[in-house]
Amino acid sequence: QNLLFNESDYSHEYPFCWRCKSPLLYYAQASWFIKMSALRHQLIKNNQKINWVPEHLKEGRFGEWLREVKDWALSRERYWGTPLPVWECKKCDHRQVVGSLEDLNKNRADAPATLILMRHGEAESNIKGFCSSYPEQKLNPLTERGRKQVLASVKKIKPRSGEKIAAIYSSDLLRARETAQIVADELKIKNIIFDPRLREINTGEFSGRPVAEYQNYFGSFKDRFARPAPQGESWLDVAGRVRDFTLEVSKKHLGKKIIVVSHMDPLFLIQTSGGVWGLDETELAYQTTVKNSSLVLGTAEFAEFKLNNWPYDAGGNLDLHRPYVDAVSLKCSKCSGKMERVKDLVDVWFDSGAMPWASQNKKSKIPTSLKLRGASKNQKLNKSEFPADYICEAIDQTRGWFYTLLAVSTALGEGAPFKNVISLNHVLDDKGEKMSKSKGNIVDPWSVGEKVGFDAMRWYFYAVNTPGDNKLFNLRDIENKKRRFADTLVNSFLFLETYHDRAPAALSARPDILDKWVLERLDNLETEVSGYFEAYNITSAARAIEDFVDELSNWYIRRSRRKFQKQNMDGEKLAAQNTLTEVLKRTAVLLAPFMPFLAEWLYQNLKNLEPGSCISQSVHLERWPIKKTQIKKSEVMKVMDKARAVVALGLAERARSGLRVRQPLNALYLSPSDYNLVGNVLYLVAEELNVKKVLSDRKVVKDSVVLDTELTAELKEEGLVRELTRNINEMRREAQLTPEDKIILYYDVRAGGDFREL
C-alpha cells in the first residue's frame, strides 16, 4: 500500500544470559519499588561514618553508586522466596501492607473459632502419683474433690445470653470422659465427641507406675521432645496429633465456641506447638518450668484459645512461604471485602539487607501476651552487635550486600550498619584472567592447601598485596612466600632447639646490645601491628611481621650464632637463649590471627623446650599485647639502624667490585659521624662485611662507605679457606649430618686449582 516510509538496519546492544549465553528478551512489566532516591542524602551521610578498605571505594565505586542511587525494584515473579507482604482487595482494589503476624490476626477475614481448653478434674492418679495413659492399667476416675472442681469451673464457662457452645470434644480416657459429661450436663449439651488425639501422652511401659519413675527416665524437660518412653510417645508425637486436631476443629467451627477436655501435656502443646506459635524445643522446655505459667493448666482449670490466622504447612507448622501464605485472607478496612496476597515475592537481596533485624527478632512472631523471652514488642537492636564492627566481602558486594545492608538500615533510621569494610578484589589466574569452569583455569584451593599448607595459602593472600588489588594466583608465589617467611620462622626455632642448654640456677644472664635491640624491635612491632589491625590494614600488619622475621633470622641470629654455639653455658649464651625464646613466643602471638596452625606449633614446641616460657594452654588463649602510645626510637635502635644501613652500603660496594662476602677484605672506611654513632657495634659491621677493621676517614661522606678492595696473598688464602669450608658444610647438609657428627675429609690436589696452594 506504499505506506512504509523507510527501512534500514539498526545496530544495538543485545542482552545475553551470563551463564548459558542465550539471547534474552526485555519486556516492560509492572513491579513494586522502594523509593531509595528519596533517601539519597541520608545514604551518603551514613556512608561517611564507614571506614573503607581500600579507601578509594568510599567516594569511588560505592560513593558513586549512592550518588546515582536508583529506586529499588523489590518484587520478583518466582515461586520460592520471601512473600511480598501486600494484600489486595478483590472488590475495591485497596491495598494493605502487613507488618507482623499480629497484623494477620487483627485483620482476619473470618471470625476465628474459640476453643475453651479445659483440663480434667482431680483424679486418682493425681492423688496417688501414678502414670495413666491409654490403655489404662488402673481404674482412674475423678475424685470427689475433682468433681467439685469441674462444677466450679463450669459456672465460669457458662456462655452469656445469646452465646452457644457448638460442641464438646474430649479425650476418651476415663477422667476426661467424666469431666466432659459433667460439663455437658451442666450446659445441657447432648453430644460429646471423643477424640483419641486428645489423650494424655502415652507413657508406655511406665503406665500404671509412679510418675517419679517416668520423670527420672529423662535427663531434662528437653529430653522429652524426641525421646519417647519405651513403647510410648515423645512430646513431638503428641504435638503432631494435637496440632492436627486444632487445625481441623478451628476450621470446622469458624466464629463459634467449643470446649476441649484433655490433659496437661496435650493442652500445653495445643497452646504452644499445637497452636503453631513456632516455639522451638528449648523455648517449650523453658515454658514448662515457668512458675505459674498460664500455659500449664491445673486440674479443672481452663483457658480460651484462638488459632492464629497464620499460614500452616501440611504438617501444621508455621510456614510463611508460598503456597501456604497465599491461603491467608484478610478483611478489607475500606469495604469489608476479602483481601488476598499479591503473588509477587521480595528480592532476595532485601533478605540479605534485613539480616541484622531477622537475626535479632526485632518483630517477634510470638504475641507479647505470652511474655516469652526475647519477644518484647518494641525490642531494639543489641547495640553490642549493631552496627557490626567489621564486614568483609568481594568488591562486587558494593552493589550487593554492602549496599543492601546500608539501604535497609538507612530506611529504618538506624544509621550505618557496619563500621569497617574490607572489600576484596578477585583472584585471577596467573595470566590475569578470571577463573571459570568453562575456561578450565580454576585452581582447587583444597589441593593447594594440601600441597603447601593452608596457613601458607592464608599468608599469601594477606601479604602478597592489599585486599583491594587483584591476585594473580600462582602456586610458585605461595611456595616462595612459604620458604621466605614460614620456613625461616621454623628454622629460627630449630636453631634455638639445636643449641638449647639448661642453665644452672645461679647463673645470671648478661644481655648484649643485640639482645636489647631485638626486644625493643619486637616492642615496636607489637605496637605497629596493633595499630594496623585497628585501622583494618591487614596487609601492612602481615608485611611488618614478615620484615621482622627476616631481621630476626638474617641479623640477630646470624650475629648471635657464636654465642649459641658455645659448648659451656655462660651469662652471654643464657641471655641470647632467653631472648630468642621470648621473641619467638611473642611472634607466635602476633602471628596467631594470620597463621593459626603454625603459631600453635611454634607455641607448643617452645613450651616443651622451655617450660614456663608459654603459660597458656594455647597461643590463641594468650592476651594480645598492649599497644604502646608510640614507636620507640631509643639509642640502641638508632645505633643498630645505622649499623645495618652501613652493612647494606658495604654489601652494595662489594657487589659493584665483584667481591663475594666470603672473601675477606682489609678495611671499611666510614665518615667520622657514622663511625662515632656505630662505635659500640663496629665488631658486628666488621663480621657481617667480612673486613678486618672498620676505620674513620674524614674523606668519606656521611651515609656512605669506602671499601679497601686490595687483595693481599694472605687475604686470598683466607678467602680460599672460607670457600672450602662452605663447600664442606654444604656437603654435610646434603648428607643430613648434625654438628656432632665427625667426618674424614679427602681432597684431591692432583686436579689443580686454587685449593692446591693450601
**Which consecutive residue ranges, at least 5 long each, have pLDDT under 50?**
274-278, 362-379
Rounded to the nearest angstrom, the radius of gyration is: 41 Å
User: Cα distance, first to last residue?
Assistant: 112 Å
Helix content: 40-55%
Shape: elongated
CATH superfamily descriptor of the domain at 113-308: Phosphoglycerate mutase-like
CATH architecture of the domain at 113-308: 3-Layer(aba) Sandwich
**CATH class category of the domain at 113-308:** Alpha Beta
Largest sheet: 5 strands, mixed
Would you count the extended β strands for me? 21
Number of helical regions: 25
Order of strands across the main sheet: 9-8-10-7-11
In the CATH hierarchy, the third-tier topology of the domain at 113-308 is known as Rossmann fold
User: What class, by secondary structure content?
Assistant: alpha/beta
Q: What does the average pLDDT come to?
A: 86
Beta-strand content estimate: 5-15%
